[in-house]
Model the fold of this input.
Amino acid sequence: MINFKRHNNISIVFVFFFIILFLTGMTVRKTPSRRENDTEAKGRPCYEEMFKDGKLRIAVFWGWDHPRDTIIGTFPAFETLNGKRLYYRGRPVQIEIGMITQINHNPKGIFKSALEDPTIDVVIYSGHGRYGRGMAFTDMEDIFHCGNGDIVEDRHVKPYRNIKASSEDLDNTRFPQSYKIIMLNTCDSNGHFRQSWGRRFRACNSPIDLVTVEYPVYNYYDHIRVLNLLQDLLAFSDWKTIKKHYDSEIHKRKNRLIIEPIFVPKDSKYARMN
Done:
C-alpha cells in the first residue's frame, strides 16, 4: 500500500524549500553558466577619457595564493614603464603603475579605494575568485564580497561547503561617474560577477568597461595575460585585438575574454566607443 501521508510530507518539504529560495532570491549553482558561442568584441577603450588628465594610472592587484614567480615576472616591465611617457594624438601621457599583493597592508581596502578613485584609469585583479564569492587578498577568507547572490560550493575546504555569494563590499563601493576599465582575471568571472558588478555600475551611473573571463584561469601564466593587456592599451588597440591576444595565451587550458558594454549613459561621448 502506498503511504500517501509520507509522500505528502515530502512534497510539503520541497514546496517550502523552493518558496524559501524564491523569497531570498538565491540560486544553487556550483558551476557558473557559460555561453555556447563566443562573443565578438566591438569598439575600443575610451582612450580620450583615460588620457585627458595627461596620465595613465594603472593599479594591478595580485590576489591571495598567487604564484610568487608569476608576480616577479612582471617586475621588469612595470619598472620600465612606470614614469615613462607615451603620446596620444600628439599629447604626452605619463604612465603610472602601482602593484599590490597580499603582503601589502590592507590590500582589500586599497582595491576598494582604487575602484572608487576617478583618477585611476585601469584596475586589474588577477587571482582567485573564491568560486564566485569575490576577490581574495591576505588569505582565502579576506574576500571582497561581490557575488551574484548564488549559493556556491567552496572547494578549498573538505568537506566542501555551500556558501551564499553575497555582495556587501561591492554594494558599499561608490564607483565614479567617469570612465575606467576594470579587469577581473579570475576563474569564470563572467558568470560569477558580471551580473552583480553591472547592477552596481548602473546604480552609480558609471560608464565603466568590465573585462571578464570564461573558463578557468591558469595562474602560472597570468602575468603574460596582464602584460598583454597593458601592451595593447599602450598601443591604443581596439577590443578585438585585446581579446585575441588574451585568448591566445591558453596554455592547454581554455580561457576567453568577455568584453561587453554594461552601461553607457544616453547621448554621451562614451557611446561611440562601444
Notes: Residues 13-26 have pLDDT under 50 and may be disordered. The domain at 40-266 is CATH 3.40.50 (Rossmann fold). The longest helix spans residues 4-24.
